[in-house]
Design a protein that fits this description.
alpha/beta, Rossmann fold, 10 helices, globular, binds zinc ion
């Protein structure tokens, strides 16, 4: 009987081991934009990721598809930009998914913008007045100085959601931070050659990076953030005194290229098309790679390599 009991407890212990295994199951992460999926991957390489948008989509406006609702419902954490970038679709996703872990104030909902200093916030403006960025520019993923703080906060919050992995996540954050700092000093060196340049933009996607590089914005093809370029706004731009000093028109690959092409025809400025976020291509699959690519494009304009070729 005693032996039987011992066997039985050994069997029970073995069973417990087996049932304990799912605790180490993959962390299920819902990322609103590809940049946050890429950052999560750096911190939790085996995370099971669903990304709501791609570099070919405008992240301000997507459809709250049933597959996305299902992904939020089964996720352990949602990682988004915040500051109203997803105001048109995320609240509906969260409501329909009704995942108790993914709610405002819970560790299961992370907003990058909560850990950044946003540029150009303005009071008394909301989306109904035509500006999609009432709380300031939310496109902080291309800010070389702010991303480390966002990554640090994200590492902490991922650790809160998955305490057993917290130490490993912290270790990966520290390594990522070292790599980022090295890249950032390379970018700083490269910025010397493009500092003082000015470009025409379409929306404020790249503003944090441009400011960091010392590249000015000569004009914006959008009359207000989120408002499509209108014919009257575009023809008004031709009278902008700053336009004469601009060296290129910088647009994101998800944007309609027509306004930029029209202005290029009028002015002879080259059009640079770069992804607004990470892509599946090796050179731009990380945020560091993407920033390097954008700097490279600005360098080539500076050297005249793309002049007249686009
Ligand atoms: Zn925006």
């Amino acid at each position: 009987m005693g032996t039987d009991m011992t066997l039985r407890s050994a069997f029970a212990a073995a069973l417990m081991l087996v049932t304990a295994l799912p605790v180490q199951a993959q962390l299920k992460v819902f990322a609103c934009e590809p940049e946050w999926a890429a950052l999560v991957q750096e911190l939790v390489p085996d995370a099971q990721l669903t990304t709501a948008t791609s570099h070919l989509q405008d992240p301000h406006y997507i459809e709250a598809r049933p597959s996305l609702i299902a992904a939020v419902r089964r996720a352990d954490i949602a990682v988004c930009t915040g500051a109203s970038l997803e105001a048109g679709w995320l609240p509906m996703l969260l409501e329909r998914a009704s995942n108790p872990d993914i709610q405002s104030g819970r560790p299961g909902l992370f907003f990058a913008a909560d850990h950044a200093q946003l540029h150009a916030p303005h009071d008394h403006v909301d989306r109904s007045m035509g500006d999609v960025h009432p709380e300031g520019n939310p496109h902080v993923h291309l800010s070389p100085d702010q991303l480390p703080e966002i990554a640090r906060a994200l590492a902490r919050q991922l650790g809160d959601v998955d305490p057993e992995a917290a130490a490993a996540i912290q270790g990966r954050y520290i390594r990522w931070r070292g790599d980022w700092n090295r890249l950032r000093s390379e970018w700083r060196d490269r910025a010397e050659a493009i500092e003082g340049q000015s470009v025409v933009v379409q929306h404020s996607n790249y503003l944090y990076l441009l400011r960091w590089l010392g590249v000015d914005v000569a004009a914006d093809l959008e009359p207000k953030p989120g408002l499509p370029p209108s014919a009257s706004h575009l023809s008004g731009l031709l009278a902008e005194p700053g336009l004469a000093d601009a060296s290129a028109i910088l647009v994101a690959s998800y944007q309609d290229p027509q306004p930029a092409e029209w202005l290029a025809e009028q002015t002879g400025l080259p059009v640079i098309v770069v992804p607004g976020t990470v892509t599946g291509d090796a050179s731009t699959e990380t945020l560091g790679g993407l920033i390097g690519e954008i700097i490279g494009q600005l360098e080539s304009v500076r050297s005249g390599a793309t002049h007249g070729s686009l």
